[in-house]
Amino acid sequence: MKEYQTITEVSGPLVHVAVDEPVGYDEMVEIEVDGETRRGQVLESTSDHVAIQVFESTQGIDRNCSVRFLGETMKMPVTEDLLGRVLDGTGQPIDDGPEIVPDERRDIVGKAINPYSREFPREFIQTGVSAIDGMNTLVRGQKLPLFSGSGLPHNDLALQIARQAEVPEESEGDDEEESEFAVVFAAMGITAEEANAFMDDFERTGALERSVVFTNLADDPAVERTITPRLALTTAEYLAFEKGYHVLTIMTDMTNYCEALREIGAAREEVPGRRGYPGYMYTDLANLYERAGRIEGVEGSITQIPILTMPSDDDTHPIPDLTGYITEGQIYVDRDLNSQGVRPPIYVLPSLSRLMDEGIGEGHTREDHGDVSDQMYAAYAEGEDLRDLVNIVGREALSERDNKFLDFADRFEQEFVDQGTDTDRSIEETLDLGWELLSMLPKAELNRIGEEFIEEYYIEDESAAADETEAEA
User: Fold this and answer.
1) SUPFAM superfamilies of this UniProt entry (predicted)?
2) Nearest CA to 47 among 68, 25, 31?
3) In which residue ranges of the chain is CATH 2.40.30.20 found?
4) Distance CA 412, CA 130 (A)
5) What pLDDT is stored for residue 111 in this prediction?
6) How many C-beta neighbours within 10 Å does residue 182 have?
7) For 9, how many CA atoms within 13 A lie in the half-sphere containing its CB?
8) CA 188, 194, 195: angle at the middle one, nearest 5?
């Protein structure tokens, strides 16, 4: 290790150092400041100059400080004993637990999964949330983001998924080890109040036992925010591909992560891209999201649920826009439903899970799942359109058929979507509830469901059936 006292400039989170030989990109650095050691990472390197991003504050760093280049990139100490632990944004334990003794130390950049070796995601994950399980099903190895807005209860939904998510027994096959399920939770740029709420919930529900939690607070340096998701994903890769766990990785809030990228880009005086974000933000996000998946011949899997708050609720903003290109769908958290008291306020019409068809049906959920989902989408969409018409002509002007679709839309939101944050519904309960709602409609209107399913699951209205029999007589 070479030691330098050649700091030339300090600019925001960046420290510029003159060197006499090339230094590796992403190499780890230690800076001695009044007897205190601060860590950093090489962000830019030439033959005679390097720019270092410091993970802690740069306050107090001057020309007299010593800089040591460690000759290696940042590594995450990984072990199965990380389950049940709480770490800060740089991977240091903050739960007063015992010291972590790692099995190995892994580079946080990770390795891309060879496309040839990728296994197509097909196995159903039950989150216990009907609007997701029934309408936008999550499958193992998928990356399915939550598109939310500032002030909406996306954190409550994230915690609900973290504690309820499981692989149903019928989807596990014969191998008992398939049931091993773990959660890696990475929180970036959250307030201390939010962090306390997260930890209280994890400890109260016992979800912490099967979880690894990384917390980067809002007052932590922005630079730390850029490594937190990489530490979390490195841990997830170890648990999934070395220990055979099915890992659900929840990352919140990706907007804070992208803001950190923009802040560092401005400090480096980079030419900005759209709305001031770096031009390489697409590549950077893809490096994170594409670390989800399954590998052929390997038992474990990584499923991602990134959460982002759309600035001004605008889904054309660069962060949700680029995320939508990379991931396999999106779940919308809606402000209007939230104001009506619907929990969780998931708006199913613009939501989408592109891999849903592969993870539902016979052998995964239930044979009628696809048809029920399609019919509920169509009926709810028609009810939404009729609400606009009611605002113009009034409900009295609508036909009996139209009124049934309006009632369906109301009950769909109040009974199917609105289930509270503590209700854990099995997929059978979700589909049975779907049939209960669809049975409000005449059989002739169920044009997206197979006849055999209608015969088996449709719930006849006894009074209506009696009236119909009398009329025929």
Assistant:
1) C-terminal domain of alpha and beta subunits of F1 ATP synthase, P-loop containing nucleoside triphosphate hydrolases
2) 25
3) 3-73
4) 11
5) 79
6) 22
7) 9
8) 65
387: amino acid identity, one letter:
R
Q: How far, in Å, CA of 279 to CA of 419, rounded?
A: 41
Identify residue 393 by its one-letter amino acid code: V
* 285 contacts 302 by C-beta, under 8 angstroms: no
- How many residues are listed for the chain in this entry? 473
* CATH 1.10.1140.10 location in the chain: 369-472
Cβ pair 149, 177 in contact under 8 A: no
Structure tokens at 279: 């031009």
Q: Which residues contact 1 (CB under 8 A, 6 or more apart)?
A: 68, 69, 70, 71
**What is the per-residue pLDDT for 177?**
43
* CATH of region 76-359: 3.40.50.12240
* Per-residue pLDDT reduced to its tens digit, 254-263: 999 999 999 9
Cβ atoms of 84 and 41 within 8 Å: the answer is: no
Q: Tell me how far apart the alpha carbons of residues 158 and 198 are, in angstroms, rounded to a whole number.
A: 10
pLDDT at 395: 87
pLDDT greater than 70 at residue 270: yes
pTM as predicted:
0.91
Cis peptide before 253 (omega within 30 of 0): yes
Q: How far apart are CA 216 and CA 220, in angstroms?
A: 6
CA distance linking residue 83 with residue 247, whole number of Å: 11
**Best CATH choice for the domain 369-472 from the list 3.40.50.11320, 1.10.1140.10, 3.20.20.70, 3.40.50.2300:** 1.10.1140.10
* pLDDT tens track for 146-196: 999 999 999 999 999 999 998 886 555 444 444 589 999 999 999 999 999
Distance of CA 136 to the CA centre of its chain: 14
Which residues belong to CATH 3.40.50.12240 in the chain? Answer: 76-359
Q: Which residue has the tokens 């504050």?
A: 57
- Tell me what pLDDT residue 471 has: 52
CATH number of 3-73: 2.40.30.20
Maximum Cα–Cα distance across the chain: 101
Contacts of 195 (CB under 8 A, 6+ apart): 187, 215, 217
CA 140/CA 134 separation, integer angstroms = 16
Residue type, 41: Q
Q: Mean pLDDT across the chain, nearest whole number? A: 91
